[in-house]
Each structure stands twice: as C-alpha cells, then as structure tokens.
C-alpha cells in the first residue's frame, strides 16, 4: 500500500529516444509529497517528454516512475487515479462544450452524477468558462483550452497535479485565479508539479525545483538550494550554460 511518506513522484533512470535523438537520458527525480515542484529547462530540454512518461502517457525506453509508490507502468489504472494531468497539447473531445467535456470525463472516472454536476458548475464559474456555454472545445482559444484542461485535471480531486505549462497563453486575471487554486490545493496537502519557462513564477509558487538540460537533470532540490544566493533565473542561466545571443549577427536588422 502507498503511504504518505512515499514521494508524490519518483522517477528512476527514465529514458526516451526518438530515432537517433535521445530526448530524455537517465532522469532521476523525487518530488516530495506535499511539495509544489517546478520543472524548468530550455526549449527542447525534455520536460514534456519526462512528464508524459511520468504520468503514463508515453512509454519510456528504460526506467520507471512511481506515483505515491504506485508503479505507473505496472499499475497504470491505480496510478492514474491518484493524479490530475494537464498534458502538453491537451487532446480532449473537441466536439463537446466545456460543460459536456467535464460531465463526460467526470462520469467516466466513476464520480456520482450529482458530484460531477456540482463540480462542473463550480469549475466553469471559477475559471470563467461558463459564458462559453455553447462553445465547442474546437472553437476555444489556446488560453481557454488550458483552462478547460486544468478543470479536467482537478475534477476528481487528485492527490497530485501534473501540469505542463499551465500558465502558457492564459490571461493575467485567469493566471491569478489558477495560482490561487493551486496554492489552496497545495496548502491543503495536495502535491503539484508544473513545468514553466517563467522563472519568477516558479520562484513565487514552488518550494522545490528541478532543472533539466539536454535530457538530463542538472540540479534538483529545495528552491533555496537550487537558487543559491541569486535569483532562480541567474542560477538557471549558469546551470544551462550562458548562451544569451543577440549581440552579434543580424547586421541587416540594425543597419
Ligand atoms: N514525438 C516526438 N518525435 C520526435 N522528437 C520529439 C518528439 N517529442 C519530443 N521530441 C524531441 O525531444 C526533445 C525534448 O522535447 P520536449 O518537448 O520534451 O522538450 P521541452 O523541454 O518540453 O521543450 P519546450 O520547453 O520547448 O516545450 C526535443 O529535441 C524534441 O524535438
């Protein structure tokens, strides 16, 4: 049986190659139960691939992932019951309204119809999707898709939320609402993993950070340890290699 001492997520030796290209190479990560964990890294570092393998969406070539001690690839149904996932790309039934999506997925997850109806109403309202009552998901903007994806992740009140870029394309008011929801969730004992490029946001929300570069973990642990005495952004640039370009080349642009 999983216990409360088990980490929310533990990955061991996760690896994935696409053809010749090794996208994720031997990733060991431990996300303590009750933590708010930020996964950061440059474009193409392997964050999405790592998270997809960790939550049972993409089969690893090697390694394992456990959610609260439950092996994701051996006991997938039980592991998935413990997590709410906002995946990258966020595939969902396109020809349904937001309310229909939540109702359909809520019932599919075995929630009682009255519980589904109540939670759906609240989620649509708090995420300001209720006005789009007759809009099909296929017509949603990118930010609206993020919000309905987040609602889907929250619906069954999971113990761990795994959210790939939850704030991307979301307007500032909605972002503030999402921050509040996630903080409340974490304050009540929930565990959260987000991937993000926005260091200030990660610094504000997260108590633990993992930095991935070129498919490998280059730093991980409590925020204060990874950040050191500077900002997370400084630490990040040091860790992934300062390669800030832009001062040379493009002569045609400035002539
Ligand atoms: N389905 C795929 N087929 C081939 N290559 C892939 C596939 N998915 C990811 N990759 C490659 O794997 C590497 C890691 O990609 P991934 O999307 O995990 O990075 P990321 O850290 O999430 O990037 P970003 O911050 O830009 O979203 C990249 O080089 C990417 O091109």
From TrEMBL:
<feature type="domain" description="ABC transporter">
    <location>
        <begin position="9"/>
        <end position="239"/>
    </location>
</feature>
<keyword id="KW-0813">Transport</keyword>
<dbReference type="GO" id="GO:0016887">
    <property type="term" value="F:ATP hydrolysis activity"/>
</dbReference>
<dbReference type="GO" id="GO:0005524">
    <property type="term" value="F:ATP binding"/>
</dbReference>
<dbReference type="InterPro" id="IPR027417">
    <property type="entry name" value="P-loop_NTPase"/>
</dbReference>
<comment type="similarity">
    <text>Belongs to the ABC transporter superfamily.</text>
</comment>
<dbReference type="Pfam" id="PF00005">
    <property type="entry name" value="ABC_tran"/>
</dbReference>
<dbReference type="InterPro" id="IPR003593">
    <property type="entry name" value="AAA+_ATPase"/>
</dbReference>
<protein>
    <submittedName>
        <fullName>ABC-2 type transport system ATP-binding protein</fullName>
    </submittedName>
</protein>
<keyword id="KW-0547">Nucleotide-binding</keyword>
<keyword id="KW-0067">ATP-binding</keyword>
<dbReference type="InterPro" id="IPR003439">
    <property type="entry name" value="ABC_transporter-like_ATP-bd"/>
</dbReference>
